[in-house]
Write a structure and sequence with these properties.
heterodimer; A: mainly alpha; Cyclin A, domain 1; 6 helices; globular; B: alpha/beta; Nitrile Hydratase, Chain A; two-stranded parallel ribbon; two-stranded parallel sheet; 12 helices; 4 strands; about 45% helix; about 10% strand
């Protein structure tokens, strides 16, 4: 089998049956933003905006390198942003502007909690 | 639009912000969706409350009931979704819940090789190791070796069955009732049932083992 054929055998998220190291029983307390990201996923699913299959495809389409390097909920939020652009619910420009605003609001000593 | 990378943003300088890049993105997406009335202002907070109410204690209650009530156990094994409904547990839309009973002859293990499907309504959010490559890759190929890494050694004459979850079909393992629990009430029994026992990577605690971990 050539090297490129090998690449086609499995999607980056399709791991069943691959070789891998020992299972380390790692766990971390979910961070507040990670839980909010999960809640967002549930709400988007309930509202018929993004279903589980679309979410999985959205993550697969990030490509192997991003899937490999980002943490679980980092992949989710990127996938959601892309899906919401594709569905023309958000635009990249408005997300960029909003991220600037959120970022500057949280800068320095005067963190606003709302 | 570039569907592969993150949006073309003037990337906020993380040095100035107390929030990380992805947390900023999460906050921005959420606030935009609320501002556009795609989702309600209170919806995420209410969903967080629902999520917080889902813990392995719910699954443990279901298991303990199945141990003491043969009729409930029969209903649970027949139609998992309807049976957990008796506890007020509501699965999302048409998602099926299949309860897998461990016996002297069969040990069950659940996994999601594609992503992270998990019976969240009865167990809450999954642990990290359930979502990481080693467990997902190897559970379907060498389950006995994976179980041994959790300290669970299954005799050769016991069949190990691995069930691979999907978005529509979730599994829950019904562990075997531990010995020396004949006089235990439901609540005491439930205290022996851990999350990992309902994933199938360990057995339910014996009263002696539970005493040691106190």
């Amino acid at each position: 089998m050539t090297q490129t054929e090998n690449l086609l055998r499995q999607l980056p998220t399709e791991l069943g049956g691959l070789d891998a190291g020992p299972v380390e029983r790692v766990e971390h307390e979910y961070l507040p933003w990670e839980k909010r990201c999960h809640a967002l996923a549930n709400v988007l699913d309930i509202r018929k905006i993004v279903n589980t299959e679309e979410k999985r495809r959205g993550i697969e389409s990030l490509g192997g390198e991003i899937v490999g390097k980002l943490t679980y909920y980092e992949r989710w939020i990127i996938a959601f942003a892309n899906i919401l652009f594709q569905k023309q619910i958000l635009t990249p420009d408005e997300l960029a502007r909003k991220m600037e605003e959120v970022s500057s609001r949280s800068s320095g000593d005067t963190v606003r909690c709302d | 639009m570039n569907a592969h990378a993150h949006p073309h943003t003037p990337v906020p300088d993380p040095g100035n912000s107390t929030l990380g890049y992805y947390e900023i993105m999460e906050t921005a997406v959420r606030e935009l969706l609320v501002a556009k009335r795609v989702i309600g202002a209170d919806e995420i907070r209410r969903m967080l409350e629902v999520m917080d109410s889902r813990t392995p204690a719910l699954g443990a209650k279901v298991v303990a009931r199945a141990w003491v009530d043969p009729e409930f156990r029969a209903r649970l094994l027949e139609k998992g979704r309807a049976a957990v409904g008796e506890f007020g547990i509501d699965l999302f839309e048409n998602t099926e819940l299949i309860v897998l009973q461990n016996t002297d002859k069969v040990h069950n293990l659940i996994v999601c090789t594609l992503c992270s499907c998990y019976p969240r309504e009865v167990l809450g959010l999954p642990p990290d190791w359930y979502k990481l490559k080693p467990y997902r890759a190897r559970a379907v190929k060498e389950p006995r070796a994976v179980l041994a890494e959790f300290g669970t050694v299954i005799p050769d004459d016991v069949e190990v069955r691995v069930s691979d979850s999907t978005s529509m079909v979730r599994y829950l393992v019904l562990p075997q009732r531990p010995p020396n629990t004949e006089n235990f009430g439901e609540e005491q029994l439930a205290s022996l049932v851990t999350r990992d026992a309902m994933i199938g990577v360990v057995k339910a605690n014996t009263p002696e083992a539970k005493e040691r971990t106190r």
